[in-house]
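Attaching the record inline, Q. Sequence:
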Amino acid sequence: MHIGPHILRNNVFVAPMAGVTDRPFRQLCKQLGAGYAVSEMAASNPRLRTTEKSTRRTDLDGEMEPKAVQIAGANPQDLADCAKLHVDRGAQIIDINMGCPVKKVCNSWCGSALLQDESLVQEILHAVVRAVAVPVTLKYRTGWNSENKNALKIARIAEEAGIAMLTLHGRTRADGYGGDAEYETIAAVKASVRIPVVANGDIGTPQKARHVLERTGADAVMIGRAALGRPWICREIDHFLRTGTELPAPEVDEVRTLMDQHLRAHYAFYGEFLGVRTARKHIGWYVRDLPGGEEFRQKMNLFESTTAQLVAVDEFFESQSNFGERLQYRLAEAVLAA
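Structure, as predicted:
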């Protein structure tokens, strides 16, 4: 699997998720087996692209290659300029967001709202591809709603524009994250283009990943919410795709060490005040399916210092050894969408 000149170690990718896939989390996912991970969505609006929030979202310092930044907007020239800015800052791949279904984004005619204007999509893709000398990829949805699906048309426009890879979330904007992903649409897109196609949506287990690859013919799978609190799902899926066998749950001692590393990197990235607060959601995801997890989450949300948070998390995972050598987490029965 490759994107332009970049050879990836496997075909298990982590989806860009606002408020989640910051540099510490991307680095952890890559460390735990992800072949590729994309930054949080960065605004192309000139007034927003250099804010502290936008700069932090696209911080690539020390990240494992290839380094990818996702950009969002509706103005072709703004998106082209934004792409150049991030390439100058070290981005090796630029991903264009035409898949976000959030109302705030779509109301600005960004994200999946762009799928309503195919001529604008074409103009944007050509502008960004011409602006940079690195691969440009596109993440999008099957259409605006069930009456207006145009995934095949957008795929052909993208290929003609020089897009290096397509990631298709198998839902319309109107679907949000509900209903079942349209794997038949992903299969149709894969059959219609010569560039790599990545399947996204409802992939929460190694078995489901293999099923989706077989059903769609896609070149890779992209994991979203299933990676929250469980970044090792990347190596679980990769191992299953290669061997057909399942890895056991991770050992408690390993996760205890990983949590310490993740939190320290997170605090260094955000600072004390913001770090302790933004870490709470990650900790909540890690413990949610473990014995005593909910009670610990509620207690942990009261800590106001990184030191207290670190000690509490370490003690919680040390206590998990009482239930066995490996984590006793509950595998999600519901399909996890991304």
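The two ends are 21 Å apart (CA to CA). Confidence is low (pLDDT under 50) at residues 331-338.

More tomorrow.
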